[in-house]
């Protein structure tokens, strides 16, 4: 299953982590300040780490950042 996750708060974070745990492909991940998109799948752990360090999932490499 491929999905986009909108929101990186408690619920969005949990959905993204569960999707990755069950080998579903998160192709886009967005929060209120930006988004990261990768048709081959966003690295959810890297995006969440970036969110924790910088405050946004946007620009979490190696995907295309929006915002």
From TrEMBL:
A Pfam short name: ELFV_dehydrog
UniProt-recorded Gene Ontology molecular function terms: oxidoreductase activity
GO aspect biological process, one term: amino acid metabolic process
The Glutamate/phenylalanine/leucine/valine/L-tryptophan dehydrogenase C-terminal domain, residue ranges: 2-61
InterPro entries in UniProt: Glu/Leu/Phe/Val/Trp_DH_C, NAD(P)-bd_dom_sf
Protein name per the record: Homoserine dehydrogenase
């Amino acid at each position: 299953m491929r999905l986009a996750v909108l929101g990186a708060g408690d619920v969005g974070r949990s959905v993204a982590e569960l999707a990755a745990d069950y080998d579903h492909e998160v192709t886009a991940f967005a929060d209120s300040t930006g988004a990261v998109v990768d048709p081959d799948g966003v690295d959810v752990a890297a995006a969440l780490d970036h969110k924790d360090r910088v405050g946004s999932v946007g620009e979490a490499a190696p995907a295309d950042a929006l915002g």
